[in-house]
Amino acid sequence: STQGAGSTSPAPIRSVTVQRGDTLWAITRERFGDGILYVRLFEANRDLIRDPDLIYPGQVFTIPEQYVMSFAAPVLSLPALARNLPVSTLCSVPQ
Predict the structure, then answer these.
(1) Rounded to 5 degrees, what angle do the CA atoms 23, 28, 32 make?
(2) pTM, two decimal places
(3) Quick check: 60 and 1 in contact, CB under 8 A?
């Protein structure tokens, strides 16, 4: 079947532009769900990043292909996860 002109899905995000205050850790935590994956982003952009602790606003980094879908999908936050838990779990206090 063919998709109609108005029913296109968003294109996967294949790059990220560094904003003021960004770190590789923060970018990968937000986009991949785990900050330690900054190593993968660093390795994929070694030609642009001399030191993973020094990135600059306006730099554009390529997302490693295996993570393209991860970037396109939102990462669930704790409040989003909590909506699916019973109140007793959320309010329990260890004895």
Answers:
(1) 165
(2) 0.57
(3) no
